[in-house]
Amino acid sequence: MAMFAKDDLKATELTLGLPGCARGNKRALANDTNEEPKSTNNTTPDAKKFSNDDRENAPPTKAQVVGWPPVRSYRKNCFQAKKTNAEAEASGIYVKVSMDGAPYLRKMDLKVYKGYPELLKALEDMFKFKVGQYCERQGYNGSEFVPTYEDKDGDWMLVGDVPWEMFISSCNKLRIMKGSEARGLGCAV
Amino acid sequence: MASSFPEEVLEHVFSFIQSDADRNSISMVCKSWYEIERWCRRRIFVGNCYAVSPRMVIRRFPDVRSIELKGKPHFADFNLVPEGWGGYVDPWISAMAMAYPWLEEIRLKRMVVTDESLELIAKSFKNFKALVLSSCEGFSTDGLAAIAANCRNLRELDLRESDVDDLSGHWLSHFPDTYTSLVSLDISCLGSEMSFTALERLVGRCPNLRSLRLNRTVPIEKLANLLRQAPQLVELGTGAYSAELRPEVFSNLAGALSGCKELKSLSGFWEAVPAYLPAVYSICPGLTSLNLSYAAIQSPHLIKLLSHCPKLQRLWVLDYIEDVGLEALAASCKDLRELRVFPSDPFVAEPNVSLTEQGLVSVSGGCPKLHSVLYFCRQMSNAALTTIARNRPNFTCFRLCIIEPRTPDYLTLGPLDAGFGAIVEHCKDLRRLSVSGLLTDRAFEYIGTYAKKLEMLSLAFAGDSDLGLHHVLSGCENLRKLEIRDCPFGDKALLANAAKLETMRSLWMSSCMVSYGACKLLGQKMPRLNVEVIDERGPPDTRPESCPVEKLYIYRSVAGPRFDMPGFVWTMDEDSSALRLS
């Protein structure tokens, strides 16, 4: 079953940074840029990687450092087909995202998110809407817009119905539908 | 002296002067030269579409035939610029549709283009000849259909690396049967299958076609048919270059290729299989440019192929070529000018191929004309960089990406300061530099001291303190573009070098330590700079002023702040409050 309490997850997150500077939880960037600047006389640089002080700074798989290494998306996506499953896990999963009524399509890397709460927050931020409350029986309540996706079989499903791992491996594209259109989706009552 | 030299004569003289820099100089000689020059300038380059407004361009240059515009910052290529940031071309197209009925060429890079704009282009410019959309997005194949259907004199349609909403391949059939003027077509970024007959007929009826870059859906079996229709091709981008080896397909292809005696450039090669590579051998002796960066071909086959290409000037390849392949390249291709080696598997920590600093050392030693390099690898040493610098002082573009951030010299475990220092010291004509690996402020001291001709610098995960940034801003006299991510640079260097920013096109800083307060100050002090804060956490004034901003983009502009910003971008304006109009 899909876990859904997005607010709970946020409360348990550890972060570095000044009070009031809640880091966007989309990107696990190197936090050691916030350290005291080293003196330029330091001749024994630490050859280690990033400091691992909190959960957000756990050694990121490379896919989690946005935009690094600087290889353009269309080059990365070229090799999806060739990779074994294990390798595919390390690279991005880019899907197009559309919203009814919005003029432009967007693109997102699903690999960047750890679960539905983060994904939905990102969609809300990107398209400026609120997703409403999800419940298994009735889908999304209290929102004009509903996040849906097309899976590998070409079926349109409600985002959140299947476990996260299954979702990211089967999602072809995302579409934020008008609530009225989405009524047929989701769990049959 | 004031009594004149006839204007027509001056205009005729000016017509021989094409470079923007020279044209700009001419226009500053005196008022009458300014006037004459502006009426006869035909080609405009706008490096940052927000540096000037369409209205200002049109007012000054009333009769432009060719325009080039660039939109998003370079780091947008790596998903660092959030979607919706800007770079919309629509206002430009609308303005030019009315002002420049004789416009012939539009070249755009990293801009958002809509189908409406494409339709407007198709309707408004009767003599339209060239549309180049490089790394653009926001449009679909419907827009392309409008161009195909209406632009009778179109010569060039180039969609390189754009993100197109590919609704269907049917758009290609909108070129009327009477249309025969195609010279260059690059549709390599499209995903949909097109009607092969339509493609074949188009190619067959355009006798001036010199450059054809197909997309992946064109199968290798059909390539020969196209080539026989266009033996005059100079540049070819194949489609998918794989199939089971069938002798008749192979010999058909090899035969067709051998008929293309003018062919100088090859690209495409998606899913390439080694068995079909020899089909190109007959044209290799004349080849100057080869892009194999989508081909997962191992080094023995690459070595064999390259041994047939003595005139090669440009090679783009994956790191499957390995050190041994680069050594062979250095031996076979003495005319090599540009090399790009891309990572086949950028996201694993352990090397999957045997490509190290040695490959770059070999090529820089063996290829005397090599001046431009983009190289991804996993290890580097100061010794290697110094050797490279001494071997090849003629580098103009040196971009090295050591895949793991902050990787030290693998021999000494120290920073790579000295190595990059050698590069900037020896390569006196260096115009573009990207650094990586473990670097302290000392590296930037070298760059500031020696890189006097440097125009573009890219930094990531480097430096110790503001001193590093200060060295660069105060030392690099010709710096135009600076892009920085994940470096510990903050307010001091930026504010101390505020005036420098007006001499540059733009500065990008993301995941650094520049505070909101400093951004506001900069915006107040420098009215001719647009200081834009990009922050997806919400309005910056809901956080303390000392809080670092997520991303910062500063650029000089005579157009003032822009008004098309999305909700996560704020302009720091002179009236000391963050200005944003939605």
From TrEMBL, chain A:
<dbReference type="GO" id="GO:0009734">
    <property type="term" value="P:auxin-activated signaling pathway"/>
</dbReference>
<comment type="similarity">
    <text>Belongs to the Aux/IAA family.</text>
</comment>
<dbReference type="InterPro" id="IPR033389">
    <property type="entry name" value="AUX/IAA_dom"/>
</dbReference>
<feature type="domain" description="PB1">
    <location>
        <begin position="92"/>
        <end position="179"/>
    </location>
</feature>
<dbReference type="GO" id="GO:0005634">
    <property type="term" value="C:nucleus"/>
</dbReference>
<keyword id="KW-0805">Transcription regulation</keyword>
<dbReference type="Pfam" id="PF02309">
    <property type="entry name" value="AUX_IAA"/>
</dbReference>
<comment type="function">
    <text>Aux/IAA proteins are short-lived transcriptional factors that function as repressors of early auxin response genes at low auxin concentrations. Repression is thought to result from the interaction with auxin response factors (ARFs), proteins that bind to the auxin-responsive promoter element (AuxRE). Formation of heterodimers with ARF proteins may alter their ability to modulate early auxin response genes expression.</text>
</comment>
<keyword id="KW-0927">Auxin signaling pathway</keyword>
<comment type="subunit">
    <text>Homodimers and heterodimers.</text>
</comment>
<keyword id="KW-0539">Nucleus</keyword>
<protein>
    <recommendedName>
        <fullName>Auxin-responsive protein</fullName>
    </recommendedName>
</protein>
<feature type="compositionally biased region" description="Basic and acidic residues">
    <location>
        <begin position="46"/>
        <end position="57"/>
    </location>
</feature>
<dbReference type="InterPro" id="IPR003311">
    <property type="entry name" value="AUX_IAA"/>
</dbReference>
<keyword id="KW-0678">Repressor</keyword>
<feature type="region of interest" description="Disordered">
    <location>
        <begin position="19"/>
        <end position="65"/>
    </location>
</feature>
<dbReference type="GO" id="GO:0006355">
    <property type="term" value="P:regulation of DNA-templated transcription"/>
</dbReference>
<dbReference type="InterPro" id="IPR053793">
    <property type="entry name" value="PB1-like"/>
</dbReference>
<keyword id="KW-0804">Transcription</keyword>
TrEMBL record, chain B:
<dbReference type="InterPro" id="IPR032675">
    <property type="entry name" value="LRR_dom_sf"/>
</dbReference>
<dbReference type="GO" id="GO:0009734">
    <property type="term" value="P:auxin-activated signaling pathway"/>
</dbReference>
<comment type="pathway">
    <text>Protein modification; protein ubiquitination.</text>
</comment>
<dbReference type="Pfam" id="PF18791">
    <property type="entry name" value="Transp_inhibit"/>
</dbReference>
<dbReference type="Pfam" id="PF18511">
    <property type="entry name" value="F-box_5"/>
</dbReference>
<keyword id="KW-0539">Nucleus</keyword>
<dbReference type="InterPro" id="IPR041101">
    <property type="entry name" value="Transp_inhibit"/>
</dbReference>
<dbReference type="GO" id="GO:0010011">
    <property type="term" value="F:auxin binding"/>
</dbReference>
<dbReference type="GO" id="GO:0010152">
    <property type="term" value="P:pollen maturation"/>
</dbReference>
<dbReference type="InterPro" id="IPR001810">
    <property type="entry name" value="F-box_dom"/>
</dbReference>
<dbReference type="GO" id="GO:0031146">
    <property type="term" value="P:SCF-dependent proteasomal ubiquitin-dependent protein catabolic process"/>
</dbReference>
<protein>
    <submittedName>
        <fullName>Protein TRANSPORT INHIBITOR RESPONSE 1</fullName>
    </submittedName>
</protein>
<dbReference type="GO" id="GO:0005634">
    <property type="term" value="C:nucleus"/>
</dbReference>
<dbReference type="InterPro" id="IPR041567">
    <property type="entry name" value="COI1_F-box"/>
</dbReference>
<keyword id="KW-0217">Developmental protein</keyword>
<keyword id="KW-0927">Auxin signaling pathway</keyword>
<dbReference type="InterPro" id="IPR006553">
    <property type="entry name" value="Leu-rich_rpt_Cys-con_subtyp"/>
</dbReference>
<dbReference type="GO" id="GO:0019005">
    <property type="term" value="C:SCF ubiquitin ligase complex"/>
</dbReference>
<dbReference type="InterPro" id="IPR001611">
    <property type="entry name" value="Leu-rich_rpt"/>
</dbReference>
<dbReference type="Pfam" id="PF13516">
    <property type="entry name" value="LRR_6"/>
</dbReference>
<keyword id="KW-0833">Ubl conjugation pathway</keyword>
<dbReference type="InterPro" id="IPR036047">
    <property type="entry name" value="F-box-like_dom_sf"/>
</dbReference>
